[in-house]
Structure formats: structure tokens, C-alpha cells
């Protein structure tokens, strides 16, 4: 998820959702492939969207390199850690890793 807010505080736009200049909606394609192949999918776009929106315009700056380079695409260490935590939590919740193979917290 890119940190590219609409005036209403949402991230429902092609820039935020990683729709490229050719109109390819990468998250939708990924969801479609996972469904067609019947494989588990951790929808990191949806999870990061919810997190970034919950933090708002100002609070979400810390997740990106905004303060260093006004970069709303690449995550800071804090953001990368938060996003990795979302993946870890989903792996554990959905039992996609053997018990005891992942540190939680």
C-alpha cells in the first residue's frame, strides 16, 4: 500500500492500491491467481490499507520514508517491521506454519 490519501482520508485510488500505468491492478490479479490455484493468500494490500488508514495522514508518515525523503512508497524500518508483523500474525492465525516455528511478539 502506498501512502497516497484521498481528501476523505481513504486510500481507494490507483496510486495507493498499486495499479500501474497500464491499468494493471496488481492486488486484484494476485487475489485472482490465488483463488484459481486454491492457495492461501495473505492480502497484504488490504491489511496495510486498514493499518495506514487507521493511523491517518499524519500518523502513517512514520511507516514510510516520508520524513527522510518525502517517500510515500517505501517503508521505514518501523513500517517494514509493522508490515512483517501483519504477515507473521496471519501465518500464525491461519496455521500456515508449523507450531513452534515462529516467534510471536
Question: SSE string, helix = H, strand = E?
Answer: HHHH
Q: State the major sheet.
A: none
Count of domain modules: 1
Percent strand = under 5%
Average predicted local confidence, pLDDT: 90
- The SS-based structural class is mainly alpha
- The CA-CA distance between the termini, in Å, is 23 Å
Low-pLDDT segments, ≥5 res? none
Helicity level, as a percent range? 40-55%
Number-wise, the strands total 0
Number of helices: 4
Rounded to an integer in angstroms, the radius of gyration calculated over CA atoms is: 15 Å
Query: Outline, from the CA principal axes?
Result: globular
Walk me through this protein's architecture.
By secondary structure, the chain is an all-alpha fold. It has one domain (1-105). The protein has helices at residues 26-37, 44-59, 66-69, 77-93. The radius of gyration is 15 Å and the shape is globular. The relative contact order is 0.13. The mean pLDDT is 90.
Ordered list of secondary-structure elements with their pairings:
Blueprint: H1 26-37, H2 44-59, H3 66-69, H4 77-93
Any key phrases for this structure?
globular, 105 residues, mainly alpha, 47% helix
Brief overview, please?
The protein is mostly helical.
Amino acid at each position: 500500500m502506498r501512502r497516497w490519501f484521498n481528501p476523505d482520508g481513504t486510500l481507494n485510488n490507483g496510486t495507493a492500491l498499486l495499479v500501474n500505468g497500464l491499468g494493471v491492478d496488481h492486488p486484484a490479479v494476485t487475489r485472482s491467481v490465488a483463488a484459481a490455484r486454491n492457495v492461501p493468500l495473505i492480502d497484504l494490500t488490504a491489511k496495510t490499507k486498514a493499518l495506514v488508514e487507521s493511523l491517518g495522514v499524519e500518523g502513517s508518515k512514520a511507516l514510510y520514508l516520508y520524513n527522510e525523503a518525502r517517500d510515500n512508497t517505501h517503508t521505514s524500518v518501523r513500517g517494514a517491521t509493522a508490515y512483517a508483523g501483519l504477515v507473521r500474525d496471519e501465518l500464525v492465525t491461519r496455521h500456515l506454519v508449523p507450531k513452534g516455528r515462529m516467534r510471536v511478539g
